[in-house]
Structures are given as structure tokens and as C-alpha cells.
Amino acid sequence: MWTVLDSPVGELRLVEHHGAITAIEFAPFREPDGRVRGDRDDTHPVLVEAARQLRAYFDRDLKEFRLPLAPGGSDFQQRVWAELTAIPYGATSSYGQVARRLGMTNAASRAVGLANGRNPIPIVVPCHRVIGADGTLTGYAGGLERKQLLLGLEQDALF
After folding, report:
1. Do 98 and 49 share a structural domain?
2. Per the domain annotation, does 52 fall within a domain?
3. Could you give the residue numbers annotated as active site?
4. Quick one: which of 151, 149, 157 has its CA closest to 10?
5. CB distance 89 to 56 below 8 Å
6. H/E stretch holding 154
7. In degrees rounded to 5, what are phi and psi of residue 93?
8. pLDDT single digits (tens) 70-109
9. Same domain, 83 and 50
10. Cis omega before residue 28 (within 30°)?
11. Residue 104's domain spans which residues?
12. d(CA 26, CA 37)
């Protein structure tokens, strides 16, 4: 099942499967790419709650999501995505820092970056909080403008 939410970063398609969020997609939405989406259901409880929490996040009233998540990916990707959820609201980490927290060297930064770029649940799994070692904004599946907006929203909420 899926629904669409209007947000400050454009329309988001929220996707649920077996009671967990499996994807959040930025518009323009891709069709079909093999992912299970099912039919649109604006009343599905998991989707309603995900939309509520995302609205609260964009309103700066929510700093930590509490949703059932089931992102599809390799074991390594799952480890990276789990580590992303440990980056606090309003904070950032470099790809190298994420690699080190996973018990790897800086040489794994590229692999972390690739896994980060394949995160199917952006915003909730905060891949936007990962930046270059020199503090620059680097690639973001939703585009650098969205990444900057999300980081700015979190910074503004802290001060």
C-alpha cells in the first residue's frame, strides 16, 4: 500500500508492506521498478502514522521517528542504515565516521556512500545527515537542494 504526502521537499510517496514502511520516494515518482507498492490507501494505519510523524518532523515538533521499518537491502546496507539512525537530529557525520563506527577504516567510506545512496527510506533513516569529510554537502538521492533544506530545518529547530 502507499499514499502521498505533500511536504516542504515536495511530494513524498510513503510505501508500506506487511505493516512496515519499506520506502519513502521523492517526486517525480518512478514507475515500475520492481518494488512492491500495491494500491493507494490513504487510510492504512501505518501510512497514516508515518504521514503524521513526517508532518510533525517538518513542523519541527518531532526529532526521532518511531515507525516500523523494513528497508530491503544487503546485510552491509542494513548495517549502514542502522548506523544512520544513530546520528542525532541536527548533527552530521562524515562517510568515514560512519565507516569507523561500523568497525571499518576510512577506506570503506566509498562503500558507506554507496549504501547511503541506496537508502530506500530517506528522512526517517536520515541519510541527509551524512556529509563529506571536509564538511561539504555531497550527493543525495533527492538532490542537494533537498538535503540542504532538511539539514537547515534541523539546525533551525535547535536554535
Report:
1. no
2. yes
3. 127
4. 149
5. no
6. helix 144-158
7. -140, 155
8. 999 999 999 999 999 999 999 999 999 999 999 998 888 9
9. no
10. yes
11. 75-158
12. 14
Please count the other Cβ atoms lying within 10 Å of the Cβ belonging to residue 27: 14
d(CA 33, CA 89) in angstroms, rounded, equals 31
Mean pLDDT score of the chain: 92
- Split into its structural domains, the chain has a count of 2
DSSP structure class, residue 44: -
Q: Which three cell numbers stand for residue 81?
A: 542504515
- Does 120 sit behind a cis peptide bond, omega within 30 degrees of 0 on the bond before it? no
Residues 6+ apart with CB under 8 A from 16: 1, 2, 22, 44, 46, 47, 50
Give the Cβ contact number of residue 76 at 10 Å: 15
Q: What does the block give as the cell for 40?
A: 493507494
Q: Do residues 115 and 77 make contact, with C-beta atoms less than 8 angstroms apart?
A: yes
CA 49 to CA 113: how far, in whole Å? 29
